[in-house]
Fold this protein.
Amino acid sequence: MPYLFKRLLGSVPLLLGICFLSFMIMHLAPGDPTLMFMDPSVSLQDLAQVRENLGLDKPILVQFALWLKHLFQGDLGYSFVSGKPVIEAILERFPATLFLSISSLILILCITFPLGLISGYKKGSMFDDCVTVFSFIGLSIPTFWLGLVFILFFSLELNWFPTSGYLDPGYQYSQWYVKLSNIGAHIFLPLLTIIVGGVACLTRYHRFSIIQILNQDYIKAGRARGLSETRLLFKHSFKNAAMPIITILGMDLPSLIGGSYIIEFIFSWPGMGQLGVASVFSRDYPILMGMILFSSILIITGNLLADLAYKWVDPRVS
Amino acid sequence: MASITSSLKAGFLSFIIMFLVSCSSADPNIISKTDILHLHLGGEPTYLNPVLSTDSPSSSVEGLVFSGLFRINSDMELEPDLVESYDVNEEGIHYTFRLKRDVTWHDGIPFTAHDVKFTFDVILDPKTNTVRRSNFVLNGTAVQFNVIDDYTIEAILPQPFAPFLIRMAMGILPKHLLEGEDINKADFNRAPVGTGPYKFQSWQPAQYVQLERNDHYYMGKPKTKLIVMKIVPDANTALLALEKGEIDEAGIPAKDFSRYSTKPFLNVHRYYDLVYTYMGFNLKHPFFSDSKVRRAIAHAINKDSIVSGVLKGFGVKADIPASPVLWSYPDNEDIPKFAYNPSFAKELLKEAGFKVNPKTQLFEKDGKPFSFKIITNKGNKDREKVAQIIQRFLAEIGVEVHIQLMEWSSFIKVINAKKSPKDYDAVILGWSLGLDPDSYSIWHSSQYPEGFNFVGYLNPEVDVLLERGRTTTGKEQRKEIYKELYQHIAQDVPYLFLYFPESIIGINKRVEGLSRPGPAGLMNPIENVYLVD
Amino acid sequence: MGILTLEKKALFSFLFLSGLALLAILFPIISSSDPNYFDPNLIGEPKSPSFAHLFGTDDLGRDILIRCIYGSRISLMVGFISVGISITIGTLVGVVSGYAGGVADEIIMRIVDMFMAIPTLFLILTIQVMMEPSITNVMVVIGLTSWMGVSRLVRAEVLSVKNRLFITAAKARGISLGPLLFKHILPHCLNPVIVAAMLGMGSAILVESVLSFLGLGVQPPHASWGNMLENSLSFLRQAPWMALIPGVLITLTVLALNFLGDGIRTYFDPRSKTSARH
């Protein structure tokens, strides 16, 4: 427990550092939110006035101090682009992102664990080669391209799923299970796109850990003692092979939460990825800062969990 | 091994069950299909408040929810909306508007002149984050709005101003809901109340905006019960959604015209919008400050092949900064043109003091090769293609071009930098014009370096014409003024005018009651639009 | 046993990659065809494959095969250099942090956390927006934003290796720090590093295509596989061949990189040679 406490305490300056760094990087990018539109009927005096109203004419450090002051008062501010409270803007995007990322994560884990295990165990076999080739074909097709092909095939040709969207307007006040099934129909194509692209990575890592572990002395010893292969695989290698996977997951946590911009853009999925990229392009600083804060907290938690998980699977890690 | 495969199977099974459920579930709507019109928004709206928003998704929604004193009909004429009648005095500076008396807000409160006054007060308030303020400030003096009685309001202008009435098409806000609120942060911006044909129902972020008809609309009850405006940011996806009937309307790229025009369930409409695309020269650039050089480039580029290559023929080449659908567009014989003639272009360059370097085959002057960079904004495939075609055309005559795509804010930062000369050589952009031909902010020399005259155009005669154009109110007189203006500009070649694209819109055949295709929209007025099976 | 042994697969992959690299380098010297050339007066529809254009032409009438060859220069370069940057930084940070342990490890890892916590896409976008988009910047940006994962992987390996018997033995023999780190510890971390490098190279090529999708990649008229794919997107039904060749090339390259990585790893890994199951 003192370890946990120390880590948590250590994250406070870390968070401040992240915020400061991001704030500076953000303001180094040219332009500001008032430059988004260019219409001959807009006057530059008006833009200057808006800039002043938003506090963008103040020095950067002052702006950061003000942001920090409001943060400690529990106020993340309002979006420059839509006037929405930042908390609200982020939270309303959260369910869609979470739904998509958790279901894709679970499915990817379900697929990659056995695939990696078998490929690693039967290294160099036909099965291994097939897994490698197919997972890499999946990996090497850009998602924007794959997504569109899927819409074309599954939605337009076969008419199985809607092209895009999240929940049809008519279902807004339906029972939860009706809602869920409607979202389910919409989630299929984005999910498939993520899985096709995401299987390769984890399968590879898992396969390598299995290969490595099967070469460890204690497994060899076990084999020599005549323990059954299945028992060896499950009892000994499973837990050890989990290590790099935990790392990857810890690393992936923010991207799971941050959503995938391309997927969300192609499938009109109302998640955080779209919000984040739109905010970069429109220089919506309050939203960006809110999202970075949010994702930093998540990654710090993710890494902490990963480190704790290491200790659990490998007691040698001190 | 067995346990792995079985768990895999179970996973897939539950997955399939989930989708069987989803596919078989019945439509819970009791509303029939012909009650809901599905429109398309290309992005998430920002504020549903006409005073604050500047993006087109927002204004698509606002157009249905709010109404102004005037509206623009499908013939692109101004017609009374909230106004019953109006007068203007001889000098053109004192307007009196008499408002309709039977109008109520969507929440049932009657609409009065106080709402109009409130709206313009909000716009003129410096605390409001609006860019509409200068529409109502002329030469530093604000237009004065005075309530005469509940249904009469007067506007006093500091000087005559031709585009004034068009600016009165601005959507009016309800005073009773916004008074005393901070308009920049008000919840109203996400749940607007207007006087228009449709009432706001819900806005699911990044999904859709749903509107319900206003049964008490003063111009007559709209025929379609519900409008769902789906937010589909990706244009390719939107096209497929149109093809599948998930949305009833979407823009169609020119290259896909033939595919969609033959679809049995689609009507494809074409019209010229009030936009043109151009390449602007930085007139402070040492080479481009010479009008001979600019003319040479104009002669070196075949606009016809740009129109056929990029627009697939769905558009016409442009020679002046006005749209052919506007009343101010002059007769064809009054427009100066630069025919495609590469050898003449080379002659002009030689006259301007350029020589061909035999090694590089490039023109050069004083040892400096004629090489320049075109910048344009990213994400516009047409402009990207235009840039590449221009690059090829100029390579043919011995001028080297580099292309740089820039992200919008950085791009604007470069061309709007408050300095002279600015850091670019040439830029490909488009202007979308208003209904009024006034283009003071684009061409007047006072709008440089701060303003939209970012090319640094300076022609005293043009300045005078611009000033006269916006203070003269007679249409025929103005047409003469603008004809002269366009001739001056075309001859000076500050921009290389490229083309007016045609807008191609596909609309599902179940949608009826459309207006004549034009820049004012196909569903204008929306209350006539209805759906059939 | 599969169709091919590991060595053969690695060999074929090596031949494929070096052939591709050679073609990319030599083609511009032996051929005078300009990948960006088209006749501006004759722009038509994209043309399907024919004898004149083996893989068809794109929407401006440019030869897709020639553009692909030129594109491979950019894509391969983006892959190699950006991964070179990220692997170097990542391995160094990971080894130092993992071996040093204690407070140093804690501090280094928190700094890594800090970099990781800022969403990558945000970093890439902001940096790309800040600098003028160019090929060099694309490579540097991808490299600088992808080393954190490698460093964590390496650190994890170092942690699990450093207390093993053979390391303790090496220390007892009085081996100095440098050789200890690079001769004894690093080889045991190669597995994940090589996997990460091979996957990273593929993903760098893809990140470039995403940047092209966002308009921040390689600038027109220059070709990369990524921007060719991106450009083919709106012609998916009209001219599918525009996507086919760059797509196949990316897939083959990523596969070859991976098989090669597998081979290299087996060669370097002292244990896998003695593996009973091969």
Notes: The domain at 87-313 of chain A is CATH 1.10.3720.10 (MetI-like fold).
